């Protein structure tokens, strides 16, 4: 007669422990959206600037950018970051290039301090129109255009569609080809689930972000706490998590691959040999399909080589630019 109450008591105790553990986890990982103003002091230090960019329908998009180096550069360098990243990923390159060249970096709509698109459109065509508006606003008639991952996909598509504006092209582990990943960061998998996406609106485990960043590095030991802080806090920028989910839903890899032979600009292709998100197979496709292109692979680096080892990866950029 006493065994059943004892079993019931144990079950109730276990249930209580589970509820307590769930509550503690919720408290630990509770991460609501953060307003832009709360992020400025740490992530918009000089020379950061903001512009109101006309994007159509009488609307403007707030854009975070940095414009560095000599203003008399005939073909400024414009660098575009990848998915869930920000202009900060180019800091190492910029510090080297800005002594000779004007270098412009920006946070694309949906990411960084720019935040979500006011139009809610994250298609490839929308990013192409955004970039055209951005270059027009800054009165840049001709540029050296570079990009990593998502930014690389935007860059090569733009070079094919607007050849008169692109003097040269630099692709760094560029996206938008139909090449299968061998490993996808956990943070990119969350938006694919409706349940997890709903939870992610208010919860974001920092260890998940850390694991995702380490996943795209060739040497995960290079991922510092400060680097994880940057990715974590900028993901919390109001609207960015929903924007990431929308962008991933609107991706169409390989849809514009037939544009590659139309690229007229001299093209430098840089790739991390340890990239598992977009494996080096994609680099060879770019080299084969883009007429005037050259390829350099860094055997030990991952998907963001410009961030993982800026000094080694910027050297071929210098050589390339001087050869033009």
UniProtKB/TrEMBL annotation:
GO MF assignments: acyltransferase activity; hydrolase activity
Superkingdom to which the source organism belongs: Bacteria
Signal sequence region: none
Keyword annotations of the record: Acyltransferase, Hydrolase, Transferase
Residue stretches spanning the membrane: none
A Pfam family reported for this protein in Swiss-Prot or TrEMBL: Abhydrolase_1
UniProt entry tagged with the keyword Acyltransferase: yes
UniProt-recorded name of the protein: Putative hydrolase or acyltransferase of alpha/beta superfamily
Organism, scientific name: Roseateles depolymerans
